[in-house]
Structure formats: structure tokens, C-alpha cells
Automatic annotation (TrEMBL):
This is Precorrin-2/cobalt-factor-2 C20-methyltransferase. It holds the Pfam family TP_methylase. Pathway: Cofactor biosynthesis; adenosylcobalamin biosynthesis. The keyword Transcription does not apply. NCBIfam families: cobI_cbiL (TIGR01467). It comes from Halanaerobium saccharolyticum. One of its GO terms (biological process) is methylation. The lineage of its organism: Bacteria, Bacillati, Bacillota, Clostridia, Halanaerobiales. Keywords: Cobalamin biosynthesis, Methyltransferase, S-adenosyl-L-methionine, Transferase. GO terms for molecular function: precorrin-2 C20-methyltransferase activity.
Amino acid sequence: MAKKLYGIGVGVGEPGLVTLKAVEILKEVDYVCTPLSTKSDSSKALEIISNLIDLKDRVIKLRFKMSKNKQELEQSRSAAAQKIYQLLEEGKTVAFVTIGDPFLYSTYAYMLKKIQEWDNSINIETVPGINSIATAASSYNLPLAEGKENTAILSELKNEEHIEKVFNLFETVVILKLSRNFKIAYPVLEKLGLKENVLIASKCGFEDEFYTENIEVFKNKKIEYLTLMIVKRKGI
């Protein structure tokens, strides 16, 4: 394989949901890069593929600082991208693995932009992965959209007025990163009479995945990072 960067979505926790194309590429590349936070040494993406391919001596762990400071975030991302770029300059083939899909709120997008800024001649291929939204809907046999319905995906809720407008405009609303958005969403759902129309899914595809339609469970309970909520105006 000639030098090339692959962005590989390895889906959610279940190894069986990793695509055949992803497995084939990961078996052949020189290095597999995975993002880690500065507070952890484990990678969920590596856990998913560890029994599918031989990773021995091919893993590069890239640490990203979890910070609200934009300058610190930029420095962390630039350092990680620089490591990948260095390997590519050495003529290596590199795969950057990420849970879910590479282009749905993934660190991969930042890496890609940086590397393209430095050298837009580098050959890049992105392989899609099954995301948590699709997994949650499938696990519950819940259509995300039918006919002429519209669906919104939100990651950052600005305020209650903002989210109320979204609920009124879209038949289905998916709220990601619920741990930081729950306090804003809850009173609006209560006001609009939508509390009974939700599916909350946590750690989709992993062994400790959790699903519930009872929103009250999380009023006084810590919400795990990998948790989302699907709200359907016509009901679950």
C-alpha cells in the first residue's frame, strides 16, 4: 500500500457492526492511530477492533486535551495531526480510527483539515461507520423519519427558547451529549408535553448499553458521556 491516510469509522461497541472494508484496510495499514483523552489510557475504538485484527506494534495513541480553552484544544489537535503527518511523510499508510462515523462529531475531521492545510496532495480515504443514532433506533425498532418527516441532530443546546423552536419545527429531534444538554431540554419537553415521547440510549452497542423511555430516571442521576435522546413528536 502506498502512503495514504484512512479515516475509519469502527461503529459502536459491537465488533460485528464494523464494516468489511474497514477490517480489510486495518489489516493492511502500517499504523493504526486512535484518539485518547489526557485522562485515560483506554480506547473504545481499539477495544472494538482488537479481536478482529492483529494490532501488535502498529498502534499510535494520540492524546487530546479535553478543554474549553480553544487555544489548548487547537494545540492538542495540531500535535496529533503533526504525528500523523510525520508518518505519512515517511511513506507510511496510516488509519485513524474513531467510534461511530468519522464525519459525525469526530476528532477525525480536525485531523483531516490540518493535514490538508499542510499538504493537499496526500491521498485520503474515509470509510463510514455505523453511528450511535442508527444503533439506538435499530435496537428499539424505531424509525427516525418516515414519509415527509424532518429530523434534527443537535449537539449543543443554546437555551430553552432555541430548543423549543427546534421541537416545533422537526418531527424527530436527536440530542447528543445528553450529559451536558439534559438540564436545558427537560423543562422544554415538560412544557410541550413531550416527556412521554422520548427514547434515551446510553453506550449503544457496548456490553453495558442502557435504554429507557422514562426521562425521570435522569433527573437525579449522573448521565454517562455516551448518551443520547431521541424525541418523536408523534410518540415512541
